[in-house]
Design brief:
It is a single chain. The protein is of the alpha/beta class. It folds into two domains: 9-102, Arc Repressor Mutant, subunit A; 106-301, Rossmann fold. 47% of the residues lie in helices and 14% in strands. The chain has 13 helices and seven strands. The strands form two sheets. Strands 3-4-5-7-6 form a five-stranded mixed sheet. It is elongated and about 75 Å long. It starts with 8 loop residues before the first helix and ends with a strand. Bound molecules: S-adenosylmethionine. Keywords: Methyltransferase, S-adenosyl-L-methionine, Transferase.
Length: 302
């Protein structure tokens, strides 16, 4: 008997095998299945697709059927029993190279993440980043030659993914607070731990604090505080964990991702508030963005 509010055995099974659907989508993306289907206006048989992507025909047929089952591909059977496959509207929009709304790059990054996540039990046992053993790079994900910057191609993919998250969130971020009083703003780049920071009215730290440990965060926040003009503000954009750390689900998954690949973590609003207060900031205001956003926004004053 299912207990109200509790997971069913079906739910447990779906969680158990969740990686399988993810791997089907990742494989179809990495073999450019959806881009080839995109170019065939009236759909394509699995044999023709197999030829285009230089893969084994029966295996391609089975991959396509699994994609149909998931809802990534539509199938149509003609009077002779020949099946042709085409992208669903969502696949066209989000998983093809040519769509302005595409998040295919993010899907392709899951190849490395899959290897890294495969070492989660090791990360939990000793609390350490798993990138060296999983993908053979160092643990500073932003260092040249390491992590997401292991090659120019990976760096470009990472930037595209950051851009994708920003594109979705920025209309909400810019409306979270009235910023019209600020004349000069700086979205931090360069080397923010070492370089002198410009004197501005508004600093923006977006998806930056969650990358670092407390020692580095305190260094960065104290430098930002010193560089801010009196009365100026810091806009801190991070998705905040709920007080009990029981959601939002995407942020909990990000937090495990941070454990596996960085020295950072996700935090609650109160944890961000404490970090800001201990570095001199006052008048801390929080704006929660809609759940689908990858950020909430905190404004803190000097
Ligand atoms: C998670 S990304 C967020 C990017 C962007 N702010 C956004 O919201 O999409 C973290 C950014 O911090 C930058 N970064 C890492 N270490 C840095 C450093 N020492 N100095 C300046 N930027 C750094 C990375 O290059 C990367 O662009």
């Amino acid at each position: 008997m299912p207990i109200e509010g509790s997971l069913t055995i079906k739910d447990i099974y779906q969680i158990m095998v969740g990686y399988q659907q993810s791997q089907i989508m990742y494989t179809a993306c990495s073999l450019n299945v959806f881009d080839v289907l995109h170019k065939a206006n009236d759909g394509m048989t699995s044999d023709v697709l197999a030829n285009r992507i230089r893969s084994e025909p029966e295996a391609v047929d089975r991959l396509l059927n699994a994609c149909v089952g998931i809802g990534l591909v539509d199938v149509h059977m003609d009077a002779n029993g020949i099946a042709t496959y085409s992208n669903t509207t969502a696949t066209e929009m989000f998983l093809t190279n040519s769509s302005a709304m595409s998040i295919k790059t993010l899907c392709l990054m899951q190849g490395d993440f899959y290897k890294i996540w495969g070492r989660l039990s090791m990360a939990v046992k000793d609390g350490s980043c798993q990138m060296p053993l999983a993908i053979g790079t160092g643990c500073d994900m932003f260092e040249k030659g390491s992590g997401f910057h292991a090659s120019e191609e990976k760096q470009y993919s990472f930037m595209q993914c950051m851009h994708m998250f920003s594109r979705m969130d920025s209309p909400h971020v810019v409306e979270a607070f009235d910023l019209s009083e600020f004349d000069t703003a700086c979205d931090l780049g360069g080397n923010f731990f070492q370089d002198p920071l410009p004197r501005v009215d508004l600093f923006v730290l977006s998806h930056v604090i969650h990358d670092w440990n407390e020692e580095k965060i305190n260094l960065l926040l104290s430098n930002v505080y010193k560089a801010l003009r009196p009365g100026g503000a810091l806009l801190l954009c991070e998705k905040m964990l709920q007080p009990l750390k029981d959601g939002p689900m995407n942020t909990l998954l990000f937090d495990i991702g941070m454990l596996l690949s960085s020295e950072g973590k996700e935090r609650t609003t109160d944890e961000y508030r404490t970090l800001l207060l201990q570095n001199g900031f006052t008048d801390i205001q929080v704006k929660q963005l809609p759940e689908m956003c990858f950020r909430d926004v905190i404004m803190a004053r000097k």
